[in-house]
Hints:
Strand content: under 5%
Mean pLDDT: 96
CATH architecture: Up-down Bundle
Structural class: mainly alpha
Helix content: over 70%
Order of helices and strands: HHHHH
Shape: elongated
Low-confidence stretches: none
Distance between the termini: 34 Å
Radius of gyration: 17 Å
CATH class: Mainly Alpha
CATH topology: Ferritin
Number of strands: 0
CATH superfamily: Ferritin, core subunit, four-helix bundle
Largest sheet: none
Number of helices: 5
Amino acid sequence: MISKAVERAFNDQLAAETYSAYLYWSMSAALEEMQMPGFAHWMRVQAQEEMAHAMKFYRHLVERGGRVKLGAIAAPPTDWESPAKMFEDVLKHERHVTSLIHKLVETAAQEKDYAAGVFLQWFVSEQVEEEAAAELVLVKIRMVQDSQGGLYMLDKEMGQRGAGD
């Protein structure tokens, strides 16, 4: 049986992961408006990953006898001045999510919820990958941001992202 404190924290994280998907869908739409279909695709894949993360929390709650309580999801921003600014926001957001995961690990430890602790280790590792991926794209954008041709080529590269990349 899952403790009420862990149940509450996991429901909050389920909402945070869903918000992440909303954020990335919003970014994808903005990139479509910027005529950057490759970057838009990258964001849609990212949104799908975030929904999969939300479902992991959902399933864990159900499997442990917890109650899933879905709340309102805030509307994400809709405007960015450039892909560089957008990916700065992506990196900032992923670092925020990392801090949320770390707080969950602390909560699980305080509650002596070893099953939750084991479950969360996947997310600790996943966040290392999420931050690294966002930072790499940001570095690439900064390398080519003054070159329309370079940005065009990078957009093509971003369009090659598959699920799990």
